[in-house]
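Hmm, what's this shape?
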Amino acid sequence: MTKKGRKLILVRNDLLEQAIKITAKEGRTLFSFTNEIFEHAIKAYNMKATLKDVIEYYKLMNVCKGLGYTLVPYEIFMKMAKKLYEKERKKMLEEWYEFGFWAGSYFEAKYNENLIETVKSFLQSTLWNIDELCVDLKDNEIDLKCFSKNLTPEYTGMLAKFIEGLFNSLGYVVKSNKRLRGIIIFKLRPKKEENSEIKLSVEN
């Protein structure tokens, strides 16, 4: 018979064993541990989220911290980027490419498993002002499409170089690309096929 205010629930044996190890390590009771899980699951549900969403967001914040991200109001960033781009366009594009390349190396070192999916999730989560971003992996090639009316010509160019550097670092090269204001389209292939023909189509 269960105690008043408590009910018996069934839990997978492997999960129970892990929970027992955690509570023993932290000096907690299994009762308090499981109740905490339920409390946070209910809070997440009330925010129209799931524990998986919360974990993915926490993972994303750690990635942003590791990459040295900082939050800047969009309008201020755009004004700063426009002024710098007008004066030092070549240098700005080089630096965005280099940062993308470094970010790719960071992802490869930290998240080798499901790497492309992790990068896809990161891009979709951090590019808040993008209307649509698709990253599809098929037959070992990647189709990336980015559309947004909010992208200025300057930001379009810088973001394209960041994406190029990111995937170059992950072992992909540009097979073809198209860039217009607010539109970035990349077709990428593994570097091992580097001797095949590369088609570039860039429009400013």
Q: What stands out?
A: The mean pLDDT is 86. DSSP finds seven helices and four strands in the chain.
